[in-house]
Design goal:
Layout lengths: L7 E4 L1 H8 L4 H13 L9 E2 L8 E5 L4 E8 L4 E9 L8 H10 L5
Parallel strand pairs: 1-5
Antiparallel strand pairs: 2-3, 3-4, 4-5
């Protein structure tokens, strides 16, 4: 598979709701633009996650504050955005805590 091959970007309903819940329209736009960039070489961007979230990746958006959690589905040539949120280490609203909770509830596939 060519590294230049474009991947389709797909958002889960949960990820869309997470973005829509961000009150600042400028931040929502920047997150969407960053997500669109994942269409080219998504496995070379961000970092692979570990532990319960192994198989997912995370990339920074809007400076250091927000993260986009996604999975590359090579067979379907798709990047599946599963979560978007702020990085707040140790806080229950931290994007990685939210993603783990969604995974446990069976809401991440």
């Amino acid at each position: 598979m060519s590294a230049d091959r474009a991947f389709a970007i797909t958002w889960t309903e949960t990820a869309l709701k997470m973005v829509e819940a961000i009150p600042d329209q400028r931040i929502r736009r920047l997150i969407t633009q960053r997500a669109d960039q994942l269409g080219r070489s998504p496995e070379r961007q961000g970092k692979p996650l570990i532990g319960e979230l192994a198989g997912f990746r995370s990339v920074r958006a809007v400076g250091q504050r927000y993260r986009i959690v996604y999975r590359v589905e090579r067979r379907d040539v798709t990047v599946l955005i599963v979560g978007v949120g702020r990085r707040r280490s140790g806080d229950k609203s931290d994007i990685y805590e939210l993603a783990r909770k969604l995974l446990r509830q069976g809401l991440l596939r």
